């Protein structure tokens, strides 16, 4: 593979009640809602994007929240843990903060020289906060609920659960251009570019685990970064030449996307860094209004009638943004 990714672009999961989802990710985790739109393939549901101040690639966690969605099953063939990067000295603060919010947490463990705190969101999605000993230079979003000195810096890594690692490892290294970093028993770590927070994926081998079922509380897909559309088009051609079944290039308004499955079953995406979330609303107003792509705009009234009401806290759009 002559083209390689620089790291994670976003992780997309299935949620339940959209208001509960927004309250948790905005207030408990302290992220910013950078875009309120709809699932372009099913516009009767929201697509909510959370991230840093401007929604930079590598900071994004997104959701399709269906209020009455059945619960999924965690297992092989899916991303089972989404990890966020926090400052090294903040794990203790986060443990107390989450417990004060009624969130049950694990004990703090140390893996690969990083402190890790695991917990679940209101729909059962497994999340982790990871403190990297070399730090993370990305600037946090400061919304008043989580002090900037403790705030999430962006995505740290994802964990893919598989029955066997060989074919998945081959896709990560030969299809995405990642490098093998290390092995800790049944956990294999791969890095994009120079590695570090936002450029990591762990492959967890659990031969006897059941297959996962994608529904509420599970990850739908994991997206990796491509710098621009020409690179993405060339990348797609290389994947097709390798025999990978890849979608056509799809317009997601804020980036362009291709999708394919790695051999272990997880749906992967390659998404462009451009054009970003500022193309249809100012930075100060990100996420405030429902945004639709041009091809759905004529149906705005019908779409809005199908969507449940969603109230955003004022701190999502602070004047100091």
TrEMBL record:
Q: Please name the Pfam families in this protein's record.
A: Glyoxalase
Q: Which residues form the VOC domain?
A: 7-132, 154-273
- InterPro entries given in the database record: Extradiol_RC_dioxygenase, Glyas_Bleomycin-R_OHBP_Dase, Glyas_Fos-R_dOase_dom, VOC_core
* Classification via SUPFAM superfamilies: Glyoxalase/Bleomycin resistance protein/Dihydroxybiphenyl dioxygenase
Q: What is this protein called?
A: Glyoxalase family protein
Biological source species: Amycolatopsis marina
């Amino acid at each position: 593979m002559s083209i390689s990714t620089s790291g994670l672009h976003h992780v997309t999961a299935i949620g339940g009640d959209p208001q509960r989802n927004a309250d948790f990710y905005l207030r408990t985790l302290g992220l910013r809602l950078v875009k309120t739109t709809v699932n372009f393939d099913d516009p009767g549901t929201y697509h909510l994007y959370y991230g840093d101040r401007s929604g930079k690639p590598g900071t994004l966690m997104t959701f399709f929240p269906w209020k009455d969605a059945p619960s999924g099953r965690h297992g092989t063939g899916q991303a089972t843990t989404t990890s966020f990067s926090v400052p090294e000295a903040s794990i203790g603060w986060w443990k107390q903060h989450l417990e004060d919010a009624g969130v049950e947490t694990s004990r703090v463990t140390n893996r690969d020289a990083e402190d890790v705190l695991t917990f679940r969101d209101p729909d059962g999605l497994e999340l982790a906060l990871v403190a990297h000993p070399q730090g993370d230079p990305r600037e946090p979003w400061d919304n008043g609920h989580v002090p900037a000195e403790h705030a999430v810096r962006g995505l740290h890594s994802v964990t893919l659960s598989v029955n066997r690692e060989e074919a998945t490892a081959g896709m990560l290294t030969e299809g995405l251009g990642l490098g093998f970093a290390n092995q800790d028993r049944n956990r294999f770590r791969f890095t994009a570019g120079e590695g570090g927070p936002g450029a990591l994926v762990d492959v967890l081998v659990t031969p006897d685990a059941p297959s996962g079922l994608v529904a509420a509380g599970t990850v739908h897909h994991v997206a990796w970064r491509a710098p621009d559309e020409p690179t993405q088009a060339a990348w797609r051609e290389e994947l097709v030449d390798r025999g990978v079944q890849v979608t056509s290039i799809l317009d997601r308004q804020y980036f362009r996307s291709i999708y394919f499955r790695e051999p272990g079953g997880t749906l992967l995406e390659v998404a462009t860094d451009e054009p970003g979330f500022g193309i249809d609303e100012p930075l100060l107003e990100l996420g405030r209004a429902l945004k639709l792509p041009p091809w759905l705009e004529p149906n705005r009234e019908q779409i809005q009638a199908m969507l449940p009401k969603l109230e955003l806290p004022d701190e999502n759009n602070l004047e100091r943004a």
